[in-house]
Amino acid sequence: MWNKLSKFLEQIYPFVGLLILLVGLWQMLVVITNIQSYLLPSPVRVVQALGDMQWRWFYQAEATSIEIFGGFLLAASVGILLGITITWSNILRRAILPMLVFLNSLPKIALAPLFIIWLGYGIIPNIVIAFTTAFFPVVINTAAGVVEIDPNLINFAKSLRVPKWKRFFKIRIPNALPQIFAGLKTSATLAVIGAIVGEFVASSRGLAAVIMQAQGILATEAIFAALVWISVLGLGLYGLVALTEKIFMPWAQGIE
Amino acid sequence: MEAQNANRDKLIVLKNIRKSYESKEGSILAIEDITFEVEEGDFVVIVGPSGCGKSTLLKVVAGLLSFDRGSIKFRGKEISGPVRDIGMIFQEPALLRWKTVIGNILAPIELMGMNKKEYEQKAKELLKLTNLGGFENKYPSELSGGMQQRVSICRSLVYDPSLLLMDEPFGALDAMTREKMNLELLEIWRESKKTILFVTHSIPEAAFMADSVVALTDRPSRINEKITIDLERPRTLTTKTENKYDEYTEKLYQLMRGEFETEVAG
Ligand SMILES: Nc1ncnc2c1ncn2[C@@H]1O[C@H](COP(=O)(O)OP(=O)(O)OP(=O)(O)O)[C@@H](O)[C@H]1O
Ligand SMILES: [Mg+2]
C-alpha cells in the first residue's frame, strides 16, 4: 500500500513540480508587470473566481459533464458496435464504410448549427455534437483492431473447428482491445471539444456558456476558472477510460 | 486383404498433393507432387530449402489450406478440412496474449465448448512436464521465447490429438535452448505416444529427432528422398557422437547441397 503510494508520488512529482513552477512564474509575471486583470488575471484571482458561487460552478459543470459523458458513452457504444459490424460482414462494410469516410471528411463542428435547429437549445443537441465529434476514432480503431491479427491465431482456432462467430468473439475481439482503448482515449478528448463547441454555438447553461458570459463583462478570471473546470472534467473522463483499460487488460503493461 | 493390413497402422496418407497459390502476378506452384505416409507413433521430419513449401504442406495436412489435386487420408478416411484429432504448433508460439499461461493451455478446451474444470489437473501436469511449474498465472509477454513455445506445445497436448504438426517450432531459439527443447520434445513424444510430423531447416535436428526424414526439393516441391534414421531410442546427447549419426547428417547435407547447386545453376 505505502509502496504503491510512494511509487505513485515518484511518478507524478516531476509534473506537479513543473506545474507549481509555471503557476509561480505566472503569479510573478502578473505582480511584476502589474498587468490589468482583465488581460491576465493572477492565479490567486482565478482561485478566488473558482470559489465565487456567483458563477454557479456546480450547476454549470453538471450540464457540461452530462454532455461530455453522454456524448462519450454514445460514441463508445455506437462506435464499437459499428466497428464490429463492418468487420463482420462484407456487405455491411461496403455499405457503411464509404458513408463513414464521407461523414468523417466533414468538419463535424460545422454540423453543430444543424443539430441545434433540429434538436433545439439545451443539453441534448450538445450530447449529439459531442457524439459526432468523438465517435469516428472508436469505429476506425475497433475495425482495425479486429482485422489486424496474427493469422496463426485464427489458424489455431480453425484447427479446433471453432465456428466463425466464436472465433470472432473469443479471439478477434479480445485481440482488438488495445486498439479499441486507444480509440476510446482519443474519443474522450474529442467528446470534451464537441460538448464545448456545442455550448459555444448556442447554450444558456454549461461551462462554455460561462465563458461567453464572462467574456461579455471582461471577467477574465472566470474564463480561466471555467478552463480549470473543463480540464478537470476532461482529465476525469480520460482517467476513467484508462482505469477501465487496466481492468479489462491486466495483461498489458504499457507505459504509465 | 493384404493391402488392408498394410494400411492399418497408417495414421495419415498423402497422395499426389499439389498446391498452388493465386496471386496478382498469376499462380505460384508451391507443391508439385507429394506422396508419403506416416505410421502411428512415428516421428517424421520434413526438411527442405527455405520457401520450398514446408509450411504450406503442414497447413494442407492440418486442413487449413485447400489443395488443387490429390488426397489426404487420416485413419483411412478422406479429409477436407480441420480435424480435432490433428493439432498444429506454429513457428511463432501464437499465444493469446490476453490469457495467462494456464488460460492459454485451457483455451482449446474453452474454444471447443468443453468443461475447463475437468482439464485443470491435466494442464498442471503438462506444466510440470515442460518445466513451467509456477508460471501458470503469468502472461505470455512475461515469458521468454522458449517458454512461450513450451506453452504452445502444452496447449496442443491438453486436448490430446493423436497427430501433432510442428512447423519449425524451435526455429527462433538459440542453439542451447533448442537442444534442450529437442530433448524435452522427444521425452513428451515418448510418454504421450503421439505421432509427430515435424518441419525444420536444421539437418542435425532432423537426424537427431526423426524415425524417418522426408527431404523436399526446391519449389515447386517434390520428394527428393525418404531416409529412415536407424538410431537407437531414447536418443540422448551421446547419440550425436555416433558414427551413424554423422553418416545420416552427411547424407542429408549432400541432398540439400544438391538442391542448392541446381538452384544456382538454374
Ligand atoms: N499466402 C500465400 N500466397 C501466395 N504465395 C504464398 C503464400 N504462402 C506461401 N506462398 C509461397 O509459397 C511458397 C512456399 O511457402 P512456404 O511458406 O510453404 O515455404 P516454407 O518451406 O515453409 O519456407 P520457410 O522454410 O522459409 O518457412 C513460397 O514461395 C511462398 O512465396
Ligand atoms: Mg515455413
List keywords for this structure.
heterodimer, A: 256 residues, mainly alpha, 81% helix, B: 266 residues, Rossmann fold, 37% helix, binds magnesium ion
Taking all Cα atoms into account, the compactness measure Rg of chain B is 19 Å
- Uncertain segments of chain B are none
**CATH uppermost class of chain A:** Mainly Alpha
Give the helix level of chain B as a range of percent. Answer: 25-40%
CATH superfamily grouping of the domain at 3-85 and 193-265 in chain B: P-loop containing nucleotide triphosphate hydrolases
What is the CATH architecture descriptor of the domain at 3-85 and 193-265 in chain B? 3-Layer(aba) Sandwich
Number of domains of chain A: 1
* Poorly predicted ranges of chain A: none
What is the CATH level 1 assignment of the domain at 3-85 and 193-265 in chain B? Alpha Beta
Beta strands of chain A, count? 0
Q: What best-fitting shape of chain A do the alpha-carbon axes yield?
A: flat
Approximate shape of chain B: globular
Order of helices and strands of chain B: HEEEHEEEHHHEHEHEEH
Described by its quaternary structure, the protein is heterodimer
How many alpha or pi helices of chain A? 10
Instruction: Report the radius of gyration of chain A as a whole number of Å.
Output: 22 Å
Largest sheet of chain A: none
Q: Give the fraction of residues assigned to helices of chain A.
A: over 70%
Which structural category do the helix and sheet elements of chain A fall into?
Answer: mainly alpha
Provide the CATH topology of the domain at 3-85 and 193-265 in chain B: Rossmann fold
Total beta strands of chain B: 10
